[in-house]
TrEMBL record:
Name of the protein described by the UniProt record: Acyl dehydratase
SUPFAM superfamilies: Thioesterase/thiol ester dehydrase-isomerase
Domain named MaoC-like: residues: 16-122
InterPro entries: HotDog_dom_sf (IPR029069), MaoC-like_dom (IPR002539), MCH/BMMD (IPR052342)
Residue stretches in coiled coil: none
Source organism, top-level taxon: Bacteria
Length: 148
């Protein structure tokens, strides 16, 4: 997502990730990790009678997978700063392949050593539907950490 020091970033920079298919294993592992065993995620028979007619991948899982698809450079990214306007616009189903797209929409200084880079982050499935949209902010170093 962010691979350059703060002062090298510019508004409008864009990136698109490779694809990532959401699997049954992903959903079950996330259920176990979070305790989110809602029937819409965990019960195939219940889900057949739901609005979508099938199990839906947890929104939290879609969010964490998508924001990581673009990758981070630890030598410049200090920390996750926050997320705003997070919306799940369409459901994600087991077997859907997601791509992440980002565009830098705001840059602001945060002290002498950092800045905050905000991107519009969207997840797009294999049907070219936007399933998630948010403003994703990172605390970014002005100077790259030296290699070890």
């Amino acid at each position: 997502m962010i691979t350059q020091p703060f002062d090298e970033l510019s508004l409008g920079q864009r990136r698109r990730s490779g694809g990532r298919t959401m699997t049954e294993t992903d959903v079950v592992n996330f259920c176990g990790l979070t305790g989110n065993w809602l029937a819409i995620h965990a019960d195939a028979e219940f889900s057949k009678r739901s609005l979508y007619g099938q199990r839906v991948v947890q929104g939290g899982l879609v969010f964490v997978v998508v924001n990581a698809l673009l990758g981070f450079d630890s030598s410049v990214v200090e920390a996750f700063y926050g997320v705003d306007r997070l919306r799940f616009l369409k459901p994600t189903f087991i077997g859907d392949t997601l791509h992440a797209e980002s565009e830098i929409i705001d840059l602001r200084a945060k002290g002498d050593r950092h800045g905050i880079a905000t991107t519009k982050l969207v997840a797009v499935n294999q049907r070219d539907e936007t399933v998630l949209s948010c403003e994703f902010s990172l605390l970014v170093r002005r100077q790259r950490l030296p290699a070890q």
